[in-house]
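Example A, followed by Example B.
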Amino acid sequence: MAWSFSKAFSGLFNRSEPITEDTWDDLEMALIGADFGPDLSDEMLTELRDQVERHSITDVKDLKQLLRDTIADRLAKFDPTLKLSDRPAVVLVAGVNGVGKTTTIGKFANYLGNFNRRVLVGAADTFRAAAVEQLNTWATRGGAAIVKPKQQGQDPASVAYETVQRGINEGFDVVVIDTAGRLQTKGGLMDELSKIKRVIEKLTPISEVLLVLDATTGQNGLAQAEAFIEHAGVTGLVLTKLDGSAKGGFVLNVQEKTGLPVKLVGQGEGISDLTGFTPHVFAQNLVD
């Protein structure tokens, strides 16, 4: 897993020297620049200052280890484990249009295939013909079977129902349902998601509701997704477009703001560029 966030901190920690007020100013700028956000940055700075004083730490390189541990401890408060023990495990994927939801589903299918899971995808974003065709392309690349609407505009809940029914009948391990990212009104979109959930739950429990967020949009992307978090019963987050970004702090920031764990992260455009999320590894690479 290659992360490129460390450039935000490299100039600060690549030398051994005493900690000064300039060090704290530089660290604050680095945290905000990495999209930890002003509130979380303030909290972490206060925490780090207390630890530096308590343990009589004077060297910048020791502060680096403290920062890494602080980030890892905060990330570890959230469980990134995907709950996929049901057969089939049904996963709803939600998110506003443009965040990479469709490509993420193909990558997720590929990721699950690496663990020998048979995956069936349901194209329940039936309002955009292009969305169905794009999903078909990515599902095929990810090694998944797909259920498509019989005609454009078919009731999304009926597509979801047919997909889960086939998943049960044919013994698929995981059923992944794509949902609409935009309708005429937010209320209409949330009603549609609620309906999809209701019809699926007549057949089997829903294992996960994953919300896809574009990490490069930071706080703006989170604001756009608030309706999903409030109404859709989201159980975990998928962060896309983390590659080549200095926005690594958004991972922790979004968990703290939503109370939801990051479960998958996307780092590139390739079919294999989606992985599970390991907090301590992420913290290590973020600060190194």
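Example B, a separate protein, is given below in the same form.
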Amino acid sequence: MPPVPAAIAHPVESHRILHIFRAPVGGLFRHVVDLARLQAAAGHRVGIVCDATTGGDRAQAALAELAPALAFGVTRVPMRRNPHPSDTAALLAVARRAEAVGADVLHGHGAKGGAYARLCPARGESMIRAYTPHGGSYNYRPGTLMHRLYMAAEGLLARRTDVFLFESEYVARRHQAFVGAEATLARIVHNGIGAAEFEPVEPAPDPFDLVYVGELRDAKGLPVLLEALAQMRAEGRHLRLLMVGSGPDAGRLADQVRDLGLTEAVAFEPAQPIRPILARGRIMVVPSFAESLPYVVLEAAAAGQPLVATNVGGIPEIFGAAADELVPPRDAAALRRAILRVLDEPAETRRARFAALSASVRQRFSMERMGADVLSGYAAAFRARLREGVPESVPAAPALAGSSGTRPGA
């Protein structure tokens, strides 16, 4: 993970913040690590509570690197992905840790972390509960049983939420449509990235034509990507694909590679830092069926990497004025056409197009802005508490501004 600049001025009042989430993996984990560093640099006392059973060696190394900045350290307890009787023990562990450090901010991330943070008993009126959804339960297909159950749970938990800090306008709109909770203070705080991530990536020798980085899960659109690759190879385009990551559908994807006759065309590698992987591919492909505001897209766009992605979740917010270049999900033919367009366009045109996207991302997705906007959200929640629980009236921000002050669906 990249170094985090200490660009936020020291606060008038220092807070005692616990970030609570389940799995120390993926974009959610990166978001918490960056935010914890920024808050510690701003003079706050920060700690983490997360799952003890996931993340492996990479998570352990990242948490060890972060530990010197954390006044309240890292507490790891077993947490299940789905609702489970063991949630009671995990919630008690969160409550004990909050009491021990005298937390005045419980910031839950993701559905499970958000539930623990908001169900934790309050320490009087001096503690606020913040929630950043990160997609997750909001991405279930509307009308399905799981969607109805999770949205009902979000509706109940919204009553115990002092401030929502949505990472994308997409999730904010989903919340408004399926949960409501208009009285709750809510802001949009886009994920942010650091200056070093805008440095160009030097191409590696003999790169793969396509690269995918992320979970090996069907919902990431990988079966569609493999179908598109098979179509292109059948047309005489002998392209190669590098797939980097791990996940529950790895075996099924390997079977599909074999069944499509792509064994010589597709290589699988375990999860690893993204920038060296970008150097090994001519085009990064993100074929997801659902997303919130994925860091892999931000990171690739920042580096000027040629990129093909689907028009889902918050990805159009990243692409901004170039969102019409995005591909419909679940459409192998459309994905094939988009990939061939990038491969076949003149090199100078391609460089200029993705340099423009990089410049746009630099302007709108600053890590310092993310940290400042989260602290601003906390401050608004504390002010609302002082006004006897009446939520602050927050003006709407312009679309895609990524700033605080936006209510869901504004």
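On Example B: The first strand starts at residue 16 and ends at 20.
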